[in-house]
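stage 2 :: seqdesign
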């Protein structure tokens, strides 16, 4: 995708990006269960923060409270200097993009873009200039006189994005905005959103259940589970150093291997796997002798190793799938646990065959031992 395309001149300057502070935010729809539970969250001015979580974890509820469509059951929300907790939506100056672009079908694209400016009583000439600016921002200058039905889904979503930015909002909220698009369009739109964020620099709070989207778009990702933050951090922190088994399993593929905690020396520990092998791992959660642990290891960090290597597990190959740049091998440890590993496709190498026994190993720093989830 093109980077660094010139933006239209005569725009209203950079957006006034504002920080956002949520303090003790809870939401209950039925007066008993909290779907968002005592949430504290700080988003920096101009930051791109993604809330990532499974369906039903409370992501949309957070955006609805930020936008002012739902009242928090407890807690306060600040945007910049203002406590907006009880302000109605139209007084919060927030841009919004949703999965269903919700353009007015009976208005042209230019009229759709002009609408929020007219509602804010911009002067006629300023509206016309700003609509041109917005069309050019999303590279759809020729489309102003068309109706939404004459645009593709991807183009309509770009217009929805332009409409959310047109009145210089201090904060932009996006709720699964790419959910209705096919894979190729999603990738293009991700590039478009990154380009616009770099250029205009608004604070963006983005919601998705797609971990690839979260990792590639965001400055920080807030992983959400059951109304609470499971972990928040830069994409690399979350992928490389998950602090709990939920995050390890939710972001990217992971092997979860059961074992028993033996001993630790600070940040490392010894674990006896169910098949009897004794291995080392990073120690998360201060286990004590005999406690069940779950070892998390990424498939791309597991490989066939020579005899005498540390952290060894013998497996029987189930099958290998060709992925182009790699082969994804499914195999089974002696206790029945399925182990996935990835073999980079360097060309010319022999592939593991079903039924073959392989000695797998990993570096100690690539295995993380979490307290086993209670069942
Ligand atoms: P997500 O966006 O992560 O899928 P939501 O915030 O939409 O999660 O929903 C969280 C929980 O709150 C779900 O159990 C959902 O059924 C419930 N919920 C959401 N909106 C309402 C509402 N307006 N009334 C009652 N329950 C709701
Ligand atoms: Mg939702």
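stage 2 :: out
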């Amino acid at each position: 995708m093109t980077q660094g395309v010139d933006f239209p001149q005569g725009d209203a300057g950079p957006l006034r990006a504002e920080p956002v502070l949520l303090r003790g935010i809870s939401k209950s729809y039925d007066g008993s269960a909290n779907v968002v539970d005592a949430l504290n969250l700080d988003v920096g001015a101009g930051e791109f923060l993604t809330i990532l979580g499974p369906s039903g974890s409370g992501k949309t509820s957070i955006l609805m409270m930020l936008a002012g469509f739902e009242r928090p059951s407890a807690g306060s929300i600040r945007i910049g200097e203002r406590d907006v907790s009880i302000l109605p939506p139209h007084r919060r100056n927030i841009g919004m993009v949703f999965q269903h672009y919700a353009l007015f079908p009976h208005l042209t694209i230019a009229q759709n873009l002009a609408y929020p400016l007219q509602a804010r009583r911009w002067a006629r000439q300023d509206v016309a200039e700003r609509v041109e600016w917005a069309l050019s921002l999303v590279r759809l200058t020729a489309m102003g006189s068309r109706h939404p039905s004459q645009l593709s889904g991807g183009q309509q979503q770009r217009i929805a994005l332009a409409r959310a930015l047109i009145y210089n909002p201090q904060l932009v909220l996006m709720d699964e905005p790419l959910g209705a698009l096919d894979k190729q369009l999603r990738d293009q739109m991700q590039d478009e959103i990154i380009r616009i964020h770099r250029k205009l620099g608004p604070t963006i709070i983005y919601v998705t259940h797609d971990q690839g989207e979260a990792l590639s778009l965001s400055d920080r990702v807030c992983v959400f589970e059951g109304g609470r933050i499971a972990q928040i951090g830069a994409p690399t922190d979350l992928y490389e150093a998950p602090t709990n088994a939920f995050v390890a399993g939710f972001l990217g593929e992971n092997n979860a291997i059961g074992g028993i905690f033996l001993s630790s020396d600070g940040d490392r520990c010894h674990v006896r796997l169910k098949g009897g092998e004794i291995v080392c791992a990073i120690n998360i959660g201060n286990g004590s002798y005999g406690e069940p642990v779950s070892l998390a290891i990424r498939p791309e960090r597991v490989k066939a190793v020579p005899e005498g290597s540390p952290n060894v597990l013998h497996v029987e190959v189930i099958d290998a799938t060709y992925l182009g740049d790699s082969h994804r091998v499914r195999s089974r440890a002696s206790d029945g646990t399925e182990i996935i590993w990835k073999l980079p496709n360097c060309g010319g190498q022999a592939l593991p065959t079903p039924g073959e026994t392989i000695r797998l190993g990993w570096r100690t720093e690539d295995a993380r031992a979490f307290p086993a989830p209670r069942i």
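stage 3 :: structure notes
- The first helix runs from residue 59 to 67.
- The pocket of magnesium ion (ligand 2) is lined by residues 59-60 (CB under 6 Å).
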